[in-house]
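User: Can you help me understand a structure? I only have the sequence.
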Amino acid sequence: HYVFRAAHGLRACLNGRGTRIKGVRLFGSTINQDDDGDVRRDPALKRDFERPNCNTWKTKRTCSAGEVIVGLDIHHDASSIKGLAPKCASVTVAPDGSSAGTRRSN
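Assistant: Let's start by predicting it. Here is the structure, written out as tokens:
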């Protein structure tokens, strides 16, 4: 069977003035781990990066249970990215387990 991975949550790190993103942490899920199509949050699936001046990690933003991140609202001005907000969707797995698709809930 096929197992898919996707992010279900994120955190952003801002500079000391709180005006620019200087790091991002993604939290992952597995999809179809037990050949059942379910989305399961997996603490081992975590990736991040930090740039110099990463000062304050903001609150973790997560999708609802059973959903994954399929897009981002990017808050910015002309010179910098100031914030990220996940766009989430539920997941469906093909009957043969060979592919996964999403359906936006909002």
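Now, to help you interpret it: The chain has no helices and eight strands. The chain has a mean pLDDT of 90. Let me know which part you'd like to focus on.
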